[in-house]
């Protein structure tokens, strides 16, 4: 990385590389007059990233866990009910279907809210986690008929994991909100 003297508060880092056509490209630190090649929108490369890595890791791991959780819950239901011939719990299939519908929406809201730094999506993620995911897991933990030790272990882990995501989501939303507020007030000073 080379340094270039400029009017942007001192040295500007200059990155140069060649693309696959052999054309050399150079990237410099953005000035107030620096715009992208596509249409004049200012570059935001100088802005600090406010996404929360902890929340992103929890959500990423939960993508795999939720698939395994759903498969394990369906298999355990079939084993407990002898192939669904003896299932007297009418609510359990509804809860399994609700989980299959709301969990992808909840995880998408978390991914989009965190990576795109959108506070409303993060609040939606926290609300879906608190109002939909936790009651579903509590139902599978203690509310369904014929709860066995496997159900308790699986759903206790899921409850702790969702609570950790709620806490990380609130922390991430506050961090992003503080970053965006600072950016807004700093832009007002220019």
TrEMBL record:
Give the stretches traversing the membrane. Answer: 53-79, 121-141, 153-173
Q: Please report the record's description of how this protein sits within the membrane.
A: Multi-pass membrane protein
* Gene Ontology annotations of biological process type: non-motile cilium assembly
What Pfam families does the record tag this protein with?
Answer: Transmemb_17 (PF09799)
Q: Offer a single GO CC term for the protein.
A: membrane
What is the native source organism of this protein?
Micromonas commoda (strain RCC299 / NOUM17 / CCMP2709)
Name the record gives this protein: Transmembrane protein
Q: Which InterPro entries match?
A: Uncharacterised_TM-17
- Subcellular location as annotated: Membrane
Q: What is its main location?
A: membrane
The UniProt keyword set, sorted, is: Membrane, Transmembrane, Transmembrane helix
